[in-house]
Amino acid sequence: MIKTLRNLLKQDKERFVVPRGVQDVIPIKAIYDDGIFQVGRDKFSKTYKFSDINYAVASREDKEAMFLEYSELLNSLDSGATTKITINNRRLNRANFEKTILLPLKGDALDEYREEYNRMLLEKATGANAIIQEKYITISVCKKNVEEARNYFARVGADLIAHFGRLGSKCVELEPDERLRIFHDFYRAGEETEFRFDIKETRRKGHDFKDFICPDSMEFTGDYFKIGERYGRVLFLREYASYIKDSMVAEMTDLNRNLMMSIDVIPVPTDEAVREAESRLLGVETNATNWQRRQNANNNFSAQLPYDIEQQRKEMKEFLDDLTTRDQRMMFAVLTMVHTADTKEQLDNDTEALLTTARKHLCQFGVLKFQQLDGLNTAMPFGVRKIESFRTLTTESLAVFIPFRVQDICHTNGVYYGQNVISKNMIIADRRQLLNGNEFILGVSGGGKSFTAKGEVINQVLAGNADIIIIDPEREYSPLVRALGGEIINISATSPTHINAMDMNREYGDGANPVILKSEFIMSLCEQL
Predict the structure, then answer these.
(1) What string of DSSP letters covers 387-422?
(2) Beta partners for 294?
(3) 241 and 350 part of one domain
(4) 242 and 186 in one domain?
(5) Is 30 within 8 Å of 17 (Cβ atoms)?
(6) Neighbours of 11 (CB within 10 A)
(7) In a domain, 341, yes or no
(8) Residue 515 and residue 527: Cα distance in Å, rounded?
(9) pLDDT tens across 350-401, in order?
(10) 171 is in which domain, residue-wise?
């Protein structure tokens, strides 16, 4: 049982200092107003959130360009810091969904349509994936004090934002309440709407910020843990395959559960990496020479090197070429993953599904034995790493674990446009929030163009106070307009409503001579007729 401690924290002008009793479970020693967390005696971390891009649906050429740009981003990581790339799957909260997506009733004659529309949205939400995927990158660095850390993060943050911008992804730094919300939503799934945190007010009252994110209880066993009434398990990537597809991360995080996957990246300075590679290559050459000398001593002068020694020599030469001529860097990587479920049986089934997915890609995931707490702290975006299962990779090998998949559109107070083919999530868009809100409906005859247009009309009428003008020569929209309480104006040779082409008022012409402008209009109309 974790008992969060109140009124025992030392107060500072701009930070909280956390009591030692709960630092093992949540390894945060202090938080600062600008989103920097102290996670060690002299270690500080900062988290940035970046948006997804349409990698899965891009063409082969575009994928290669994105892959190379992402490799450039990895190459730009500082060798003096640790970088954690985190993919967070969190379940869509029903209360938030109903508040932001469902149409509010307005007490008019259209409320029956709004109720039917809301029922349809709830049915779609139930059948959809109902998972929101968020992506973070956490930088942690050892500095003497927070001022040095601030200067470092200001420089590194600007570089990160620029690199993500070239990828087409928007990267923003998180405030302290936004970082704490990540942990609150994970530890207290189902209570997302209850999170309230004001750093200034909490500091003034002398409260511990961990009271806002801690679960009621946590129990750790050999191969799983329990948070309140929910179960969780931490996995790590034990064996890497020699060939991995770039879709592996997307398939691993496609599970319809609350989970987090993190990749800890520790870049090695290039000069040290080259010296290490040369030393290992020299060792392989020494082994080959000693083997050949033994064969010569036995008068076996035509013997060829064994396959394993030849393969080691080839791989080390390729590795050294990557570092010296192909703009690759040597990096240490640790991949951890935590997933949760409502029951122990469901947790075991999910674990088996994840292990099967990894085996499909010729990789071996393992369950951390008696290291669940350390694994949990490593997988969460705190900025700490307590698992030592390193794997040496080059930039190109690490870039295969590309975190991008497909963009989801879910605007507040938007309208329903369908379902994302890749992520299976609902598309809720407000065209007024887009860079270009124009819409064209194209398709073959009988493909549903008119139906789509009528659906757009209904969405706009029910959602807001939009003025909609329909030019309908075939009069197929008349029943819809009558049902929505609109006005129909018939213009024909036999209708009482006509358009006077010679009508003119004082404002006609916008300051120019209205008679001249009207005359030119009448002459051009006659030419067309």
Answers:
(1) ----EEEEHHHHHTS--------B-TT-EEEEE-TT
(2) none
(3) yes
(4) yes
(5) yes
(6) 10
(7) yes
(8) 18
(9) 999 999 999 998 889 999 999 999 999 999 999 999 988 888 888 888 999 9
(10) 15-92+130-268+329-399
Q: Which residues of 33-72 are buried (b: 16+ CB within 10 A; e: fewer)?
A: eebbbbbeeebbbbbbbbbbbebbeeeeeebeebbebbbe
**16-25, 203-212, 222-231, 282-291: which range is least confident on average?**
16-25
Looking at the domain assignment, is residue 410 inside a domain? no
Query: Could you tell me if residue 428 is inside a domain?
Result: no
DSSP string, 162-214: HHHHHHT--EEEPPHHHHHHHHHHHHTTT-GGG----HHHHHHHT--GGGGT-
| Average pLDDT score over residue span 65-73 | 92
Chain position carrying tokens 């990587």 = 333
CA 45 to the chain's CA centroid: 19
Strand partners, 90: 132
Flag the least confident range among 63-72, 89-98, 274-283, 421-430.
Answer: 89-98
237 in a structural domain: yes
150 close to 36: Cβ distance less than 8 angstroms: yes
- Name residues whose C-beta falls within 8 Å of residue 449's C-beta, 6 or more positions apart in sequence: 441, 442, 443
Q: How long is the chain?
A: 529
| 497-528 confidence digits (pLDDT tens) | 877 777 777 777 676 777 888 888 888 888 88
162 lies in the same domain as 254: yes
Q: Residue 273, class by beta-carbon neighbours within 10 Å (0-12 exposed, 13-18 middle, 19+ buried)?
A: buried
Number of structural domains (the chain) is: 3
Q: How many CA atoms lie less than 13 Å away from 355 in the CB half-sphere?
A: 13
Compute the CA torsion angle 378, 382, 385, 387 (nearest 10 deg): -10
Domain boundary among 399, 420, 438: 399
Predicted structure pTM score: 0.80
What is the chain's mean pLDDT, rounded?
Answer: 84
At residue 129 the predicted structure's pLDDT band, cuts being 50, 70 and 90, is low
Element (H, E) at 307: helix 307-325
294, 381: one domain: no
Q: Are residues 319 and 233 in the same domain?
A: no
